Each structure stands twice: as structure tokens, then as C-alpha cells.
Amino acid sequence: MDPMSTDFRDLDRRAADFYLTFVAQVKPADLALATPCADWTLHGLLRHQVSQDEGFAAAARGDGGDLQVWRNGSLGDDPHAAARASLDLVTGAFAEEGVPDRPFLMPEVADRPVPGRMAVSFHFVDLVVHAWDVAATLGLPWEPSAEMLEASLAVAALVPTDDATRGPGLAFDRTVPAPEDVSPGDRLLTLLGRSPSWVPSQYRWR
């Protein structure tokens, strides 16, 4: 699967539904929990995804150049409703005619326009992996379909591994070493800087 020639919009819609199944299980007390993303509590992680959704929606409509449109997300009093609303927004923007061929301005990711097909693929893999972040935080099983994993691995393989792209505070953490026979799901996590063995602190000593 080549992200430069594949239309990821249907996969992205399915990944949104997949992600929301985990967000729907978040309780108010969970929002303060640590997540696999060291810089974020669960509240911060969910807010980050809402912000990214709004940024991708703006970029799809030609307004992604302002960094603030990628950082203004709010969870309000209902994180699940906020997540659903932001995903409805970005899904609607992606559905517009010509989006796969439209250049996206994404200042958090690249200093030049990103082809629409690739931009949608980035949003897709964000949802699949952030679904794991939420699932792992809550101690829930994460089981994306084989098609989602195959597509996510194709996208993850394109992410640069240089120090300007990877590391604390950047879009992706450094790749985690993994054995050759690791499962596709664990391979995806390690490629994008996650340790599949991470467990939340509330379960660590039980």
C-alpha cells in the first residue's frame, strides 16, 4: 500500500470510530491519568487529538498555515462529545471534492505543503495509535483490524527518523527497538515511539 497513491478517507472514518470506542469509556476521574505519551495526561492526550482534528480540517480547506488552528482544541465538560464533534468536523472536511489532490499546510509536521493523500494518511495513523494510547491508559485491549494495521505500517514506515523529527516534544518519539518476529501491532507501536510493554501506573503494582 502506497500512501502517496491511496485514498485513506474511508480508512480514516473507520479509525475515527475505532478511536471513539475507547474515548467513550473514559470517566472524569481517568482524565488525570498518565499516558504512554510522557508529556500528556489522558486529558492532554484527548485535547491534543481534538486540536489535531481541527487543524487537519482547517488544512483541508486551505487554512492550515496558522499554528494556532492546531492547538486550540477544548474538551469542555464532555470529552467524548468533544472528540466526536472534532472528528465529525475533520471527516466532513476530508469528504470535500478534490481533497486527496489538495496541498495541506501543516506547520507542526512540515515546512512545505503536504499532498492531501499523505496528510489524510497521517491523520489516520494518528487515530489508530492514539487509540492504543487511550486503551493502554485504561487497561483495555486494543485490536485494530488487519487492514488498519497494514495501512498504518505503510504510513509509519515513511516517518523520518532523524533528530529533527523524533524526540521529546516533537511529533513522534524515537523508534523503540523491537525483535524481528514482533506482531504487526507491536511493530507499529515501536515504529512510532511506543513501548508495547507500557502499563499504566494504577496497574503496575497489582
From TrEMBL:
Pfam families registered for this protein in UniProt: MDMPI_N (PF11716)
InterPro entries on file: CHP03086, DinB/YfiT-like, Maleyloyr_isom, MDMPI_metal-binding
Residues of the Mycothiol-dependent maleylpyruvate isomerase metal-binding domain: 14-135
GO MF terms, alphabetically ordered: metal ion binding
Tree of life domain: Bacteria
NCBIfam families with a match to the protein in the record: maleylpyruvate isomerase family mycothiol-dependent enzyme, TIGR03086 family metal-binding protein
Name assigned to this protein: Uncharacterized protein (TIGR03086 family)
Origin species: Actinomadura namibiensis
Phylogenetic placement of the source organism: Bacteria, Bacillati, Actinomycetota, Actinomycetes, Streptosporangiales
